[in-house]
Amino acid sequence: MTPFNLGKLPRIYFGPGKLAELPRLMAESAKSALIITGASSFYGSEKWKKLTDELTSRGITHFHVSVKGEPSPDMVDDIAGQYRGKKPGLVIAIGGGSVMDAGKAVSAMLPKNETVKHYLEGFQGAGVHDGVKTPFIAIPTTSGTGSEAAKNAVLSRVGPDGYKRSIRHDNFVPDISIVDPELMLSCLPSVTAACGMDAFVQLLESFVSTNASQLSDALALSGLEQVRDSLVTAYRDGNNLAARTGMAYAALMSGITLSHAGLGVVHGFASVLGGFFAIPHGVICGTLIGAATWTNIRYLKELGEGNPFLEKYARTGALLARREYTPENRDDHLDFLVRQLDEWTETFRMPRLGAFGVGFQDINRIIQHTGDKNNPVKLDKDGIKEILTASI
Ligand SMILES: [Fe+2]
What we know:
The protein is of the alpha/beta class. The chain has a six-stranded parallel sheet, with helices on both faces. A two-stranded antiparallel sheet has the order 6-7. It is built from 13 helices and eight strands. It folds into two domains: about 10-185, Rossmann fold; about 190-390, Dehydroquinate synthase-like - alpha domain (Dehydroquinate synthase-like, alpha domain), CATH 1.20.1090. A hairpin with a 5-residue loop joins strand 6 (about 150-155) and strand 7 (about 165-170). The structure holds fe (ii) ion. Fe (ii) ion binds near residues 145, 198, 267 and 285.
């Protein structure tokens, strides 16, 4: 068995109706909170009114900020600067991955005075954050990034010199995560599909990661099973609570597995493409995963027989096909996996990269910056180019 470390996890409250725990949990630890939501879905809903009424009755002061789009360093600096003096005892983010990342970064920056750029990974002269933050509660309203269980927040600036970079520390894992699938019922089909593919890719990439362990594998497989059973149903019938619950579980597991095992080449592309072009992260994942899986399998086959990562891809194919994995049927399982990914891309009408302005003239600029992270096989520039070209 591979040696592994189990890092910090949030206190997790999972299941339909669990949002009702929030006022009690807030009252346990703070008298005031900064609540960050998205622009529409939760803020203004009946649930929002019920929550704020209960906070008032418990004597908890709350400040509210709504954010739109993916968080940028300027957005985080603005919010932290505005509320630092009010010293909220808690930061709570209720929304999709962008909202949770915004909340996570704000909670990390409230006790600091400098810009968040000072702590972004990969920035020239970046400093090391000491992990001191305002306590943070994450409440997802989509099933995708797994930010509710992860220790990083991704911030981006989109444009020709754009970037997507993380602020990261073990202490940035949310102190509490409330995963209530009832909050996901109103999620639009296109968002359900894109977020669901992000969760799927995170599970698959961490399962076949060079840094995977027995523990991360167990969690990844249980998440993959839920994607198999729930993703298409959640897309077609958004009100299906069982399917929403399955996808909420899959996304939560993906946050834990990506934090522990790392990710592969699709997320290598995502951090570059998401900086240069305004493409939703889940769409990048859903569009690239077919070609990336096919290319990875081809490169792994070239390494010769008995490769453990090839076996893991085949196990994933067998799991998705609801068949028992048998080594002698390895190639059938692999074929099923590739066909399943194509079928999902078609079912979800996943837009290709060209729809967001990515052209063949951009290929060299993109692959120059793309790393393959913990990809199961080292890809050369030709392999990376092949994946991108097939997805434009
Ligand atoms: Fe992702």
